[in-house]
Design goal:
- The chain is built from 19 helices and 14 strands.
- α3 (about 85-90) crosses α4, α11 runs antiparallel to α16 and α13 (about 365-385) packs antiparallel against α14.
- It has helices at about 5, 50-65, 85-90, 95-115, 130-140, 175-180, 225-235, 245-260, 295-300, 305-310, 325-350, 355-360, 365-385, 390-410, 410-415, 420-435, 440-455, 460-475, 480-490, and strands spanning about 15, 20-25, 35-40, 70-80, 145, 160, 195-200, 215-220, 235-245, 270-275, 275-280, 320, 495-500, 505-510.
- The chain has a four-stranded parallel beta sheet with strand order 4-3-9-10, sandwiched between helices. It has a four-stranded antiparallel beta sheet with strand order 5-6-7-8, covered by helices on one side.
- The chain folds into three domains: about 5-275, Rossmann fold (3-Layer(aba) Sandwich), CATH 3.40.50.620; about 280-445, Isoleucyl-tRNA Synthetase, Domain 1 (Orthogonal Bundle); about 460-510, no CATH class.
- The chain binds zinc ion.
- The site of zinc ion has 3 residues, from loops.
- Zinc ion binds near residues 39, 225 and 250.
């Protein structure tokens, strides 16, 4: 076994839990093994930028836990049985499960493009019906649920009795008395308490349904996550995550069902919630159009730009969406890959003086960069250990990038800096593994930008190349006026020319 896999996990990770309302040290139930469940998507449409925030938040949690040496079982479900799916299926005259499957496939595609690591398991409601029926049965047996009087012979709804669970409200802070006070007009008289919620819904004509002890029907929304999480992870596990909007009623109800069904608490030790993505007043830019679907944005910018936009806000806070932020991310990544290009150049030079010898130059640029590289890994991981503080972690990345680019401007120093290539590459590799940003080569980045920018302006590489060749021809013929005119044309298209000893190279500006 390699040293990597036998390495004991680092124990300094602290997570803010919405349940305890404080930073909690991560102490897995099974030492060295973290079990995590995250509420996935209801698949009846394409994934949008709000969904992507939750997906990326927990992708980074997953990646950081792995980086810290934990074994991680990460379960994220697909809700493929739901009112919205059924309504859309009726609209489309399509089978609801087929519609849902279509969007699960689209989601998988989008999330792969976003660079998300695939969870350990992705259960679906339609494939978890026996587990759901078993849990509902247990809740009735234990006196926490009841079948309401049938609306139709042999078909009953089953409700969870919120008054049967003393701890109801412990996650959201809501009290049963308040739920009663906030009673809606359309209250269902068959419920014993207005806060009672459906575990099983009797089949309605034309709806997808399964046989159960309460007649044909389908699960209510909340029960699925209790059943699927416990089937995959056991009756108690370490982390439960989801968007902040799920705290009530979804997660409150999950706790009630799970702890009443098993008779022991806690169902999940730590509850993590990511903040909302808010649409500010600023309009999206014309070049992007008014887009909200992930796939449309990924056609316009590389996935890393979107990841950086999300991760530059703390996951628990709100994130105001704006196309300016997306442009800022593009500019920041362009600087990062400029730094990488310099480092790749140093790597290609082979061995050179050791960092200590470089320090003898005593220039500020050298000592700053060497210092940053020496402490980068420790500081980066410490930021991530502090409740996944990606904002602090990314600030360190920007610092490093600035320092490399400043160093890179000094051609004399650059000739001697070979030994900085390895630590810099290892720093970028770690950032790539944990945040999914900065892990590629500079060539990959500039190509991704080129493809998208050319598509946006409706030009091909060959067309750009022929303008460049024409400019070279004009220069060779000493037709300076024409050469200048062509340079301006290229500049107007967003083409950056780099005249060098090996000829003229070019790339596209990020905006
Ligand atoms: Zn859920």
């Amino acid at each position: 076994m390699s040293a990597e896999t036998t390495k004991a996990p680092h124990g300094g990770l602290r997570i803010y839990s919405s349940l305890s309302r404080e930073l909690t040290p991560l102490v897995p139930l099974t030492p060295g093994h973290v079990r995590m469940y995250v509420c996935g998507m209801t698949t009846y449409d394409y994934c949008h930028i709000g969904h992507a925030r939750a997906m990326i938040t927990f992708d980074v949690v997953y990646r950081h836990l792995l980086e810290r040496g934990y074994a991680v079982t990460y379960v994220r479900n697909h809700t493929d049985v739901d009112d919205k799916i059924i309504a859309r299926a009726i609209e489309n005259d399509e089978d609801p499960l087929a519609l849902s499957q279509r969007f699960i496939e689209a989601l998988d595609e989008d999330l792969a493009r976003l660079g998300l690591r695939v969870p350990t398991a992705q259960p679906k409601v339609s494939e978890s019906i026996p587990e759901i029926i078993e849990l509902v049965g247990k809740l009735i047996e234990r006196g926490h649920a009841y079948a309401a009087p049938a609306r139709e012979e042999g078909l009953s709804d089953v409700y969870f009795a919120v008054e049967s669970f003393e701890a109801y409200g412990k996650l959201s802070g809501k009290r049963l008395a308040d739920l009663r006070a906030g009673e809606r007009v359309d209250v269902d008289s068959r419920k014993r308490h207005p806060g009672d919620f459906a575990l099983w819904k009797a089949a309605k004509p034309g709806e997808v349904s399964w046989e159960s002890p309460w007649g044909a029907g389908r699960p209510g929304w909340h029960i699925e996550c209790s059943a699927m999480s416990m089937a995959a992870l056991g009756e108690g596990f370490d982390i439960h995550g989801g968007g902040i909007d799920l705290i009530f009623p979804h997660h409150e109800n999950e706790i009630a069902q799970s702890e009443c069904g098993t008779g022991h608490a806690p169902y999940a030790k730590v509850w993590m919630h990511n903040g909302h993505l808010t649409m500010g007043e600023a309009k999206m830019s014309k070049s992007l159009g008014n887009i909200v679907r992930i796939r449309d944005i990924l056609d316009a910018v590389p996935a890393e730009a979107l990841r950086l936009l999300y991760l530059e806000a703390h996951y628990r806070g709100p994130l105001p969406w704006s196309s300016d932020r997306l442009t800022d991310s593009m500019v920041a990544l362009d600087r990062l890959y400029h730094a990488k290009e310099l480092i790749e150049g140093l790597e290609a030079l082979g061995n050179g003086p050791a960092p200590g010898d470089l320090l003898r130059d005593q220039t500020e640029a050298v000592s700053e960069l060497i210092g940053l590289l020496q402490h980068f890994e420790g500081r980066f991981l410490a930021a991530m250990d502090d409740d996944f503080n990606t904002v602090a972690a990314i600030t360190l990345v920007h610092e490093l990038v600035r320092s490399i680019n400043r160093y890179g401007n000094n051609k004399k120093l650059l000739k001697k800096a070979h030994s900085l290539a390895a630590p810099a590459q290892s720093a970028f590799a770690m950032v790539g593994r944990v945040l999914g940003i900065g892990g590629g080569t500079s060539e990959q980045w500039f190509r991704e930008v080129r493809v998208r920018r050319l598509a946006a302006i409706g030009k091909t590489e060959a067309e750009i190349q022929s303008l460049i060749d024409e400019r070279l021809g004009a220069r060779a013929a000493k037709d300076w006026a024409r050469a200048d005119e062509l340079r301006l044309t290229l500049d107007g298209l967003g083409v950056v020319l780099m005249d060098g000893p090996e000829g003229t190279r070019w790339r596209m500006r990020v905006e």
